[in-house]
Amino acid sequence: MNPADLMRLRTVERTCELERMWQLLDPFRADLTQEQYDGLQRQYSRYHDRLVRREQDGTAAGVDAFERDLVSLVVGRLLEAESGRRGATPAARRLLTQLAGRAGPVAVPLTGLEFEPRCETWSPLTSLVRLRVSGSGFWELPVLAHEFAHCLITDAPAVDRAGAGGLREVRDEIARDLRSDGDLWWSDGAETDERRGRRAEELVADVFATYVLGFAYPACCMALRIASDGLDTRHEIHPSWRHRVWAMLQTMGQVSAQERTECTRWNDFPAEAEKQARELWRTLSGDDGHTMSQSERARLGLWTHRVTEVLNGFGTLRYAGSRRVAVLAGELETGRTRTAPPGRDTVADALNAAWQWRLSRHRTPDEVRDAVTYCLSRC
Ligand SMILES: [Zn+2]
């Protein structure tokens, strides 16, 4: 065997694995739309052809991004089938379908499970939103709304009619503002235009997730994701949590103000939810954002406002809660869980009710498990 043969061996290994994964996806074709399946098949053929060429050339091929996406997709479907659809994956798919429905003529992203990432990610290659295999599943579903925003912003051709162009523009405006600000309050000092764009996009995605899900998104971030000693840590592509949460609270304030002025019937849900979120922030941080300077607050307020203005243009994206949230939260509290007919509630309603219920006092593992089972049966 010569060195080229050894490299060929590795390429053949990848080819066999790719083919095996593709076959494993076959029983789940019905879960995908024709468009999604065709898109995957095009990618599959492209990667398969590349492997064949590499085998002929005698060069090695490593695991590529498409194979990783395919494995995530297959793992997600297999686990879901094995667990009798008890996990949160079907609810994740319903949430993304419902958000896409509210956003207009938008392609619904695929979902898959992943062992590696410490948080949910979105793959632009196949429009795959990855959820974590481990983790509490249901309670972290709100993060999918944030990933969906990345999807909307980046997956341009499919979504232009839905106003995603406006979201991209506002992201770029924020990135330009950051540059003229000298980035001092926002970054770790080593900014590039690419990193400014990505940080700005994170902020847009946070505002989006809060706008479309309400309380459930900031509640999930504050309760499960944010370490109280890491509020001001500036990550490579994420703004600090202090800035992110401030933008979420501003968004909630703007939604409740809009409800007050635009709705003929008084709906106090958004205002109540904002109050709860602010209390949670005080519990976590010990302040109400007052450690930020006036100009930081002004900047973030302005950016949030620009993003929500674009989102207003979508028409049906704003989430203002509903009576169902209070009903569902009441059912969780009283344990009268068998009487309500399933299937009436949106995933957004169930998440808001569940987070309200969970944050109102300490809940034991048994209570939490029962609540998840009930909520999954309702949405
Ligand atoms: Zn993100």
Query: What average pLDDT do the residues reach?
Result: 85
Largest sheet data: 3 strands, mixed
The percent range for helix content is 55-70%
Count of individual helical segments: 15
Termini separation comes to 58 Å
What overall form do the CA principal axes indicate? globular
Rg, alpha carbons: 22 Å
By secondary-structure content and strand pairing, the structural class works out as mainly alpha
What small-molecule ligands were found? zinc ion
SSE string: HHHHEEEHHHHHHHHHHH
Strand content: under 5%
The domain count comes to 3
Spatially, the strands of the biggest sheet line up as: 1-3-2
Count of individual beta strands: 3
The poorly predicted ranges are none
Describe the structure.
With 379 residues, the protein is mainly alpha-helical. The chain has three domains: 3-55 and 63-144, no CATH class; 163-312, no CATH class; 323-378, no CATH class. It contains 15 helices and three strands. It has a three-stranded mixed beta sheet. Helix 10 packs across helix 12 and helix 13 (323-334) crosses helix 14. The longest helix has 24 residues, at 34-57. The chain starts with a helix and ends with a helix. Bound molecules: zinc ion (ZN). Residues 146, 150, 202, 205 line the site of zinc ion (ZN).
